[in-house]
Amino acid sequence: MRKIIILALLMSLGHLQAQKSYSYKATYRLEYQEDSTDENSIQSETVLLYLGEGQSRYSSLGKAVNDSLGAFEAPETDFNYKIYKNYQDNELTLAEDITAGRYKYKYTQKLKTIDWEIKPENKEILGFSVQKATGSFAGRNYVAWFASELPFLDGPYKFSGLPGLILEISDLKDDYHFTLTGFQELEKPVTKILNLDNYKVVSQEELDQFRDDNNRDPLGALKNAGVKFGFRNKEDEAKTRKELSEKYKRRNNPIELHLNE
Description:
Helix content is 23%, strand content 40%. The chain is an alpha+beta fold. Strand 10 and strand 11 (176-191) form a beta hairpin. Helix 3 (204-216) crosses helix 4 (218-224).
């Protein structure tokens, strides 16, 4: 099966650019430590990387469902953004829906080239032979495993630049750990839809700050957006605010510890 996938991939890559579509999907399990002070605060989500010629689209499964990219039930997600990599223009665009989609922001930046150091170690992941590489990004040091037989210079989240698809990557503290759980050619290519005209252009710093402000007081953000709540009394509202505040305090371990200049 692995050889069939690779053969089909090599035969079809030459046609993908004209189609402007994604013909392959890599599925990963992301495990992450939500609270930097609590090693037991491990959460997990399924994330997806759609791949085409010179382009990719990354998001959580929950976000992909909401954007109608081929799934049926919408699981909850803590990651309401999608990331587009455009290798022809050497650009990355992150677009995020905040406050239940009432605010939409995006930023575009140059693809960040990680100074990878390829190591001699090898192992297998889902039948693919992978090789080890190490590098640093946004305040974390990473170990990655890439498959040169899958000719995509790509990986989950913002990771890229290795001579083959990244099948596994984790930082040295293991706060964020992506592991491939499936790779497939899509029976029907997903058309590239990149209509982000209704997203406000901001910097990464501005978007990160707006997200943080929203997470600090989500009820206030929703009220400012015109959402009305049906709390039975002020005690119920105060209890909900306290629960959300405690949840905010636990979410103190972002994947990017600082902006990667």
